[in-house]
Design a protein that fits this description.
Layout lengths: L15 E3 L6 E3 L10 E7 L10 E7 H8 L12
Antiparallel strand pairs: 1-2, 3-4
Bound molecules: zinc ion.
Zinc ion binds next to strand 4 and helix 1.
Length: 81
């Protein structure tokens, strides 16, 4: 038999997201679909790279991401599930 205590836990809930490039910001509603308009990047640079072992985290809106990808010499592969 197990006996439990009730405790209150504080957790972080996403309330808004902002594009690091253009500054566009969206408030996140209960459904959270607004978050789908942004893409989060978490990069780690390798040992002896120009940014030796730094980690970068940022969020980019779809518009800025598409503008960036359009600068690619080779278009990315596109998949649909
Ligand atoms: Zn943007």
């Amino acid at each position: 038999m197990k006996d439990y205590d009730e405790i209150q836990v504080t957790k972080k809930v996403l309330k808004s997201i902002t594009c690091n490039k253009c500054g566009k910001s969206k408030t996140i509603t209960d459904f959270g679909f607004e978050q789908d308009e942004f893409h989060s990047f978490n990069l780690t640079f390798g040992y002896e790279s120009m940014y030796d072992e730094q980690r970068w985290k940022f969020d980019i809106c779809e518009s800025c991401l598409v503008d960036f990808v359009k600068t690619f010499k080779h278009a990315p592969d596109v998949f649909e599930d």
